[in-house]
Amino acid sequence: MERGEIADLRVREAEDLKALLGACTSVRLRAVIEAELRAALASLIELAADLTEVRRLLAEARRQNSRALLERDAVRLEAALAGAPPLLAAAFAEGLATPTPIAAGLPDFCWRSPHKQPLPVPIVSAGEPAEVMQRLKAGEPFVLTGSRLCMSAVGKWTPAYLCAHFGETALCTVFESADANFRYWDGRKNRGNYHFPDEAHTRKELLTMRDFYAKTRRALTNPAAPRAYLQTGLVEGVGAQLVRDFARFDWAWAKSLSATLGWGALSSNVVFVGMAGHTTPAHFDEQQNLLAQLCGRKRLLLWRPADWPCLYPFPLFHPCDRQTSLDLRAVDLAKFPKFADAQPLEAVLQPGDVLFLPQYWWHHVENLDDDCVSVNFWYVDNAQRDVQLPISEKANVALRRNVERMMAEKAGTERAHAVFAELALGKPEAELAEDTRSVLDYARVLLRNVFTSEEVIERWLVELTVGRFT
């Protein structure tokens, strides 16, 4: 029996056992069914690991007959395992399965959750267009395999190729870091006058692709050299060959998503070129995003928009707005206890994979290989400006940002940090400064247009401030 057939059998077996478990009331029989279900799930996890390995080998295969065999194996495994992710996710939540073994083979520099093991991001084949569209409409992340979106660049847009064809004068945006940790920042956002010392900055510069490439080669042989991470749009002056590759992307499909899904217009593409270990700390974007992997492997840890309070984002008027204030490598749970409640999801992208990253989903990004190249497709923010009830996860994040902005404007941006910091202390209301009480009452009035429960409003305001303003 081939692995695809085994996977299909295990999925159906696990579904049947799950249904039996839900209907069973006998303690003894439940124990027997749970043992059988654990065995079926363990087999599925092993087959999912096999699929990851097949896809890795496929990316490296050069001989046509080898590629044909691997492609057949991959297609059959993907088809058979298509129903596995929701089944596994439910089983993880109930403690009936062991987390995906991806972490076992990761480099030492990768972040590992000390609290909740990551759940796998679902994988869907481009050969199942109805399933792809259903998942896009659901607004949940998934990895798309076998896509034609960027096929003209997969395995081709290596740093050496980009160096040869990007153009002699085109200037690229490059970030430089001493420790391979690349936190975004924008000094123009610092309307709250937050302390942001020079050592917290990731340096930003404009370089030609050739100069960037030379800098990455130096870093390969000199561990003390600064690390450089290119994150640039396809700028004016790009070479003709790159323009031809770019024109062969599946633009018809990419642009059709705006109309089909009600997204905003396709607004920009950014090319990411980095080395192994380069990390972008957890953050969220306000646009819909398709991230296509072209060369090397990239690992992403995702968290739902509902985990916003658990990630303790920087204040709205801080240079690092939309990013977690936590150092995931050393989180102090005494100060940030809710982080232990955040449930990560995990995806490792192989060349040719496309990750759908919905707006407001948190993502922590790690390059697993040297010469790791990706390109993304950003769509203009399509968030509803009128709050729809009941409020959704992503709408709640937008609401948090709007209310925080309005509270800051009520306090005056120069005074806002002090007001939020006082609220974060949890002092009795009678002990608050007069302007702080005024801002708090203003926020309550705003939130009564959305929530009917005063208890919900007070909890919401605590989550808005605690752990974020120190």
UniProtKB/TrEMBL annotation:
Keywords: Coiled coil. Gene3D superfamilies: Jelly Rolls. Transmembrane segments: none annotated. GO terms for cellular component: cytoplasm; nucleus. Residues 44-78 form a coiled coil. SUPFAM superfamilies: Clavaminate synthase-like. It holds the Pfam family Cupin_8. It comes from the Eukaryota. GO terms for molecular function: [protein]-asparagine 3-dioxygenase activity; ankyrin repeat binding; peptidyl-histidine dioxygenase activity. Residues 245-394 form the JmjC domain. This is JmjC domain-containing protein. It comes from Diacronema lutheri (Unicellular marine alga).
